[in-house]
């Protein structure tokens, strides 16, 4: 398949639904072969793979808990074995427990950080080692406006995303000699299945009207920016933190 990412191989974590799914599909639309990581939603991950294959690209589905380093090592190795290369890593998998500090259990913090922070570290380290051997690549962190805004009852997630940003900027410096670009994408309030855990459909619509652009972002809008950052269109972009939040962070 022709496209800006033709011949490239990408791994997207947490790609069975929401933003991760949209990114996987968008990368395939641009010609990339895509490995779809999931932890629990196998049927949805298979649907993503089928959609990618209908576009004429190769897809593989990998179950792995990104919070487990051994599983991440096997996952990255599997991508290399299947596609013969790994050019793009998108660290999208996330987990969040929303509780006030006075009620939070250490396990809530540990699980949130295992997926949202340590998972990004493990996957990035294994992927970067392969990319360094091959002469380059692109790593993208799907962070959040929570990285810089202290939203209450989200200390675990806020802290994980802030640390993710700082790691990414550090790696952008360290990996530049290896021609590996590292960037950060900060979505704002996005219309995803995960939001239905906290809000009803009517609440999402009504609360969206109060946002600067009058609605939540779509996953596809976030995905298009992600695709830009990992493509050669952004060949001189590294160490960047780009918000796709419709002005959410400046008004909330």
CATH architecture: 3-Layer(aba) Sandwich
Percent in helix: 40-55%
CATH fold call: Rossmann fold
User: How are strands sequenced across the largest beta sheet?
Assistant: 3-2-1-4-5-6-9
CATH class, named Alpha Beta
Shape: globular
Q: Structural class, from secondary structure content?
A: alpha/beta
Number of helices: 8
Give the biggest sheet: 7 strands, parallel
Characterise this structure.
Strand 4, helix 4 and strand 5 (about 135-140) form a beta-alpha-beta unit. A seven-stranded parallel beta sheet has the order 3-2-1-4-5-6-9, sandwiched between helices. The protein has a single domain (about 10-250), classed as Rossmann fold (3-Layer(aba) Sandwich), CATH 3.40.50. The termini are far apart. It has about 250 residues and is α/β, with parallel strands linked by helices. It contains eight helices and nine strands. This is SDR family oxidoreductase.
Structure described in brief:
This protein has 252 residues and is of the alpha/beta class.
SSE topology sketch:
Layout: E1 9-12, H1 18-29, E2 33-38, H2 42-54, E3 59-63, H3 69-83, E4 88-91, H4 106-134, E5 137-142, H5 155-175, E6 180-187, E7 190-191, H6 201-208, E8 217-218, H7 219-230, E9 241-244, H8 248-251
Parallel strand pairs: 1-2, 1-4, 2-3, 4-5, 5-6, 6-9, 7-8
């Amino acid at each position: 398949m022709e496209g800006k990412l033709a011949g490239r191989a990408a791994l997207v974590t947490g790609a069975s639904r929401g933003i991760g799914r949209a990114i996987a599909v968008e990368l395939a639309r641009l010609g990339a072969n895509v490995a779809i990581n999931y932890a629990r939603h196998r049927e949805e991950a298979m649907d993503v793979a089928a959609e990618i294959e209908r576009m004429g690209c190769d897809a593989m589905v990998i179950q792995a808990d990104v919070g487990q380093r051994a599983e991440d090592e096997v996952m990255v190795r599997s991508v290399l074995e299947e596609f013969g290369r790994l050019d793009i890593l998108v660290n999208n998998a996330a987990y969040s427990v929303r509780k006030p500090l006075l009620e939070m259990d250490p396990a809530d913090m540990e699980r949130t950080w295992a997926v949202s922070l340590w998972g990004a570290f493990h996957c990035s380290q294994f992927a970067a080692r392969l990319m360094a051997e091959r002469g380059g690549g692109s790593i993208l962190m799907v962070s959040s406006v929570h990285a810089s805004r202290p939203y209450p009852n989200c200390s675990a997630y806020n802290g994980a995303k802030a640390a993710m940003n700082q790691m990414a900027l550090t790696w952008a410096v360290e990996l530049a000699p290896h021609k590996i670009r590292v960037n950060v994408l900060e979505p704002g309030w996005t219309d995803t299945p995960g939001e239905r855990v906290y809000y009803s459909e009517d609440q999402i619509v009504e609360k969206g009207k109060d946002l600067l652009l009058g609605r939540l972002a779509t996953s596809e809008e976030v995905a298009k920016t992600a695709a830009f950052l990992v493509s050669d269109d952004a060949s001189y972009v590294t160490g960047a933190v780009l918000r796709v939040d419709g002005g959410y962070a400046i008004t909330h």
